[in-house]
Amino acid sequence: MRAKDLPAPVWEAVDAADVVVHAGDWVSVELLDALEARARRLVGVYGNNDGGALRNRLPEVARVELGGVRFAVVHETGAATGRERRCAKAYPDVDVLVFGHSHIPWDTTADTGLRLLNPGSPTDRRRQPTFTWMTVDVADGVLGEVQLHHLPPP
Fold first, then answer.
1. Domain named Calcineurin-like phosphoesterase: which ranges (predicted)?
2. Element housing 31 (H / E)
């Protein structure tokens, strides 16, 4: 079951962040509006569960440089098997690929050095034991600490 709103700790993280990244499956325009109003800067893409109104406002792939680190954001990357190789080939010009879709937290590095991050979901944990999201420190061209945050199910 999907939540009607983000949990309070996630809103606190939004308020503290310089940039908020969302890898799709917004499901409602209201969430996009709320994040656009509250985040200092928002980078987002649409997901497979997002209808026409969201697809009209969001790209399939977003690319942005933050603190000298090149990011791409996309919803779907395909099966877990071979993901690093496929994504390194598809995104040779970025340092970090943030993706969604599976709701399964993911943090790996391809042979090329591409870092792949999936924050999971703070509202739809599927078969995961907790609700999750990530925070990342970026400065001077370096991806610093990547922290996976957990919220227990209600």
1. 5-140
2. helix 29-38
DSSP 57: H
Whole-angstrom distance, CA of residue 90 vs CA of residue 77: 10
Task: Write down the domain spans for the chain.
Answer: 8-151
From residue 85, alpha-carbon distances to 82, 89, 92, 102, 117 in Å are: 6, 6, 10, 18, 14
pLDDT score at 3? 56
* Nearest-angstrom CA–CA distance, 55 and 52: 5
CA distance 133 to 143: 17
Cα–Cα nearest to 115, from 69, 65, 64: 69
Task: Give average pLDDT by consecutive 10-residue segment, the chain, 154 residues.
Answer: 77 97 94 96 97 97 98 97 97 98 95 97 89 96 96 76
pTM: 0.94
Q: Which of 75, 121, 124 is nearest to 100 (CA)?
A: 75
Considering the four listed CATH numbers 3.60.21.10, 3.20.190.10, 1.10.443.10, 3.40.718.10, the one that applies to the domain covering 8-151 is 3.60.21.10
